[in-house]
Design a protein that fits this description.
With about 1050 residues, this protein is of the alpha+beta class. The strands form eleven sheets. Strands 22-21-20-19-37 form a five-stranded antiparallel beta sheet. Strand 13 and strand 14 form a beta hairpin. Helix 9 packs across helix 10 and helix 11 (about 210-220) packs antiparallel against helix 12 (about 225-235).
Length: about 1050
Amino acid sequence: MAGRFRGPLIVTSLVLAGGVLIVAMCAGLIERKPVLTDADIVLARAKKALDRRDFPTAEKLARDALDKGTTIQGGAWIVSGEAIVQQGRFEEAVECFLQVVKLSKQPDRQAMAHALAGDVLARRLHRLGEAETHYRQALELEPNEDNARRGLITLLAAEGRRQAAEEILLSVIRDAKATEQHLFLLGNSEWVINSLSFKTREGDRKVQRQEFLERARQAVPDDPVPVIGLARLADVKNQSARAIELLESVLAADPDQYEAWAMLGQLLARTGDARRFLDWNSRVPESAEQDARTWFARATWAKHRNEERVGARCLWECLNRDPNHLAANLQLAQSLDRLGRSADANHFRRRAAQLSELVTLLRGLAGDPRFGEERTEQRVQRLVELNRQMGRAWEAVAWSMFVLRNNQDLQWPKKHLEDLRPYIEKKGTPRTIKLFTPLSRVDLSDLPAPQWADATTAAKPDTDPEKTAFGPIAFREDARATGLDFLYYSDAADPIEKSRLPETVGGGAGVIDFDGDGWPDLYLAQGSHKPVDPNQPTTRPLVKAPQTPPRDRLFRNTADGRFEDVTNQAGVLQTAYGQGVSVGDVNSDGFDDIHVANVGGNRLLINNGDGTYSDETEAAGIAGNQWSINGLLADLDGDGLPDLYVVNYLAGENVFMPSCPPDASNGRPCFPGDFDAAQDRLYINTGDGGFRDMTQSSGIARPDGKGLGVIAADFDDDRRLDLFIANDTRANFLFQNRTGMTGKGVSLLETGMKSGLALSAEGEPEGCMGIAVGDVDGDGTLDLFITNYIGQSNTLYSLEQPDGPAPATGFFLDRTRSAGLFDNGFDLVGWGTEFLDADLDGDLDLLITNGHIAGHVREGERLEMPPLCYRNSGTGRFAVVPARQLGKYFAGNYIGRGLARLDWNNDGRQDAVITHLDAPLALLTNTTPRTGHRLVLRLVGTSSSRDAIGATVTARAGKRTWVTQLTAGDGYLVSNQKQLVIGTGTVNRLDAVSIRWPSGLDQDLGPVETDRTLKVIEGRKPLILGGKN
């Protein structure tokens, strides 16, 4: 096998072999007699005519054989039927096959005939209900009739009826006749099939699933079954209202469709519509009670009502029906944690992690390049191990046999087969052996079952009336007007569709006060020329190197509404392939230094304090030689000096390959799955200009990160900076800082799964990129918003701090849907994002820049995408601000990448800078006409690190409290202005302001007037820099 399996896989297409059009299926009905009659000879001639595609002659001869009294009547009817199919007379063909049912007294032959009739009804006449009836009649007569099983599996998969398909899939596996497609369908219950492929005499005939189902609906308008499939497709596309409408029409026509009941319940629970959901709940039939999704819908509703114990019971009931429900395992673990049952929670969390890993492996093996399509022996071996660990003996056996078919010399699959034999030899062994599931250890039947009689959940008003006094939020694009003339360089700018992977990522921006005048300047990372390797096949046109090598740029804010390019004066000579920019005071001299993440070697620029920079990369020892995409400077070991964390993305000999797989003459654009993950690096500041690499000893060594975004913040309120890494198609990392607790120097513990940040609420690793951090719901804790790939929505993780001692008691919950942040980003590829209080009403709003990846745009998608701005209602919900209100920039479409927050004109309103791949840099000046009051704080540490990363400010006025924290990393490729802006709405005087410094000092500033900028040096009286005197 040499590490790679043979043969192609179809990603989202289900291939169905056999059927009416395969003559071999008929051969078993044609009994060879020792002596053939004249009629039998005529039938033999009919078969030859069929083989040479002379269908009219084949039909005539088959009919003649019947008239002459052939002894092989079943075979004659089949040859006649197939010839008629090829001539387009499908109704007649069905009647021909059913003649076999009437004439034969042998169940296996009757079963075959039913299956052949079902094939014509499904594929040609699109009468799916009738086809299903014939397939099932075939299986009643002969449970192992292969054509009927294949046809019915295809039908049920197309219709989105996965539960109905499971037992048939298992029967195929038990008979050792499973194909890879069967194993994929069974292994991932939420698999989405976009197309069906039928093998015919003319070759494979491919049809889109949507088209197949629409034809079926037109053919038999009263058949509810294809409508279930259309509803499933609508749900996958996030068209919830359409899916609900379709499912309600199904149940109106046929109330016995239990899968439609279950699907409808899930959709209604998501909407939060109490009346409709509770009406559904009161009418669920007994048949649907056995569907795991019915109970998952109830769990979702219990969560909506904050009924933790009821929700946990519903999730447990869900898993009793389907122990492989990924989202239910994950959410039950989180629920049990909140109920104080962490030991029980760990069992379900472990299974959720196993299921998530399995789904990712299946996606890659099925050919999805985003998850790595290389079919290595090691990956399939891991698939077998996971199935075995989870008690899925039949799937472990089937995959082991699949491997042996490719290489009979391997020993590990034989060992698995030997070990699993006792389980599969037991009669009635289910798909999942309960002994291997958490259900064998945890009984939650004592928790209350749902008792819902009426719609008692009242929706909160979307907007506080007081908030309408502010706004409308608006921005003006001012880059060119202020002298910010910058375009990120790429060899593939024309045509951008030919971009190599590093060319799709974009460049970052660092907001920096490099001259210490109190006005934010900008450092912009630039791309570089990377010629295509002439030895690699490509259709990409060759690009000559620019006469002047592209360089990073430094723009100084002149404090009079302009920026000037001071790159040369400052001695910035960087010509590497720039990605992310990090800003921090490395040597604590009061001047901002810069770290630039590059492809193939990073740079550290030290501020000389005279308006110039020196490249001290070599002395610092932090260059590296990987694809570094991001970084941050923050004190992670508590010694008062900023350390360096570098996020590395993909590893490999040549990440600049123009196409993948390498050396393929007909290659496709490269995806992240084509490369291994690169290990992030942690460098500890030694205080003498150097850094010590503590990657291995610190706890951050992880094999499969593929990080893009990073944030350093104190999430658990213990005055230590934790690290959150947003990973692409892999589980996210949360490194909780345990430095000082282990006696082993800097110590970081990965707790992504336990904290709830590793996966989405559905248990899926997402294509995560940008990160925004802030307290969006006013509960005093930091929340995280993550931008994701198209078709996944973005994700809001809300930090819930239950009653109990701090630290380490909080859990993050996916609140995306309830916050109103799911729908608008679903069809977009999100990148840079930031929370900012655009109208200073006291609640954090949200900016996102979007844009697809060149070469990865599928039919119906777009490369350039609109940016988004959400306004926070103040009740934990967001609403998109219309583009026409926001300003001209928001009416356009771009390939956006980095987004940084700043107040470039020092007017107290927060602005933004956005980098693009297809357009010059954008500077968005906040022009919101009516804003609330604000307090601006610039913090300087003394015992804490000078940048004061991790310092938390709490402001109080009456019953209202604001909590904000100075963080580092700032999401994707950027470094924000290091100041805190607290919008206070109508409040013009704060009763109390306090600062919790990382050093351990708690500093009380007392009552503070708003509309001013304060510089607070740790432990000293604040200085008023601007605003009221």
